Amino acid sequence: MKVISYQWSAVSKNLLLTSLLILSFVITNFAQTGKSAIARQAELVTEFDVNGLKVLVKRRQHAPTVAAGLFIRGGARNINDKNAGIENMMLEVATEGSKDFPREGLRKELSRTGSSVGSASSSDYSVFSLASTRKNFDRSWDIFTDLILNPTFTDSDVEQARERIITGLREQETDNDNYLQILQDRIIYSNHPYLNDVRGTIETVGKFTAKDVREYHQKVIQTSRLLLVVVGDIDPNELQKRITATLGKLPRGEYKEEPFPALDFSKATLDITSRTLPTNYIQGVFNAPSLNNSDYSAMRVAVAILQGLVYSEVRDKRQLSYLPNAELGSSSANTANIYVTAVDANQAVSVMLDQINLLKNKQINKEVISGVAEHFLTTYYLGQETNAAQAAELAKYELIGGGWRNAFDFLNKIRQVTPEQVQAVSDKYMKNIRFVVVGNPAAIDKRIFLSN
After folding, report:
1. CATH topology for 45-249?
2. Among 46, 89, 129, 228, which residue is least crowded by beta carbons within 10 Å?
3. Does the pLDDT of residue 31 top 70, yes or no?
């Protein structure tokens, strides 16, 4: 088997060198102590259960802030085409006021304590979040839990949330990249729960009433559906008492999570939407292992290398596109993709497919994997600086990554990836690519796009 060493672009080289410099100065001597340092991070996490509510508390002593998130399991599995967006709206309206903290009083109290509440929804789960100073955490916790337990869901709050959401939905198709993503989702997620957009549609969001939101809240705010994650200088034992007196009183319910079905990548496809544009927007999607799959680490390395290759070959060497890319997702039903905007779409895509074939047919040097692993190490630490980021990471691995402890094993698994594994996952997953194009149909050679 021939082994090759890839030529990185100048930008990629600079990025890697910069990363390594940051690594040297910010994470001193990690190469010798990294494993134990990560293990110590895991030891800071306390896990317990309150009436079916699973709780993770990561104590960061002397941290001046606290982040908390109450996560709702299910994501797109909780909705259908008739009520798509109801969970997202319920959470957004819940941030507006509660029994003990009506709208105006809530705003004043959040301002006084330097706290904030928010919400977010994804295809796999949703979250109601809190950010607070440690000094004011006790009061912020009272606000957070009352908004969850006793939201008012007034007609005026529902109307304001509806206007915000519908404005966002109307604007998303005016951006070509967003429109490309919408078209891709419709095609890739056909006959799959992910097809039901958790943000909803203009039609569904336009019909929701305060009664609908109130009833949905009663349905899903049950401990068997929930996960609470708190990160900060918080005593787990004291927090457990607070949870028992508040969220622990919620009904338990009988929620049982079912796995998402597999996506269909049985053959290559090409869907073109005609738009008069100065360039063509192109995304090719292929199957990928999920976070809890043993192939994920090798696939993460493979896609990172592919990202460097397409940047070098498409932009640096041929100037066919400003920012070609390759990305790996982190969903339960996972995908990866290659993306490019180009006037010469055929040449750009042909070059990108050549890089995929290179990964399939030739092994990379171990040194390249080591470089990728060190870059991941740097970006990991930089990305985990805040309590909110650490809470999100713990939740992601607990909910869809096989358990929160895997969040601390990720870097070790990346280091253990071999050239043979990178080649194997490239061959296994980077095929039957499903392309979506927004632009000029006459500029697209179907034979090229369907060749992989």
Report:
1. Cytochrome Bc1 Complex; Chain A, domain 1 (3.30.830)
2. 46
3. no
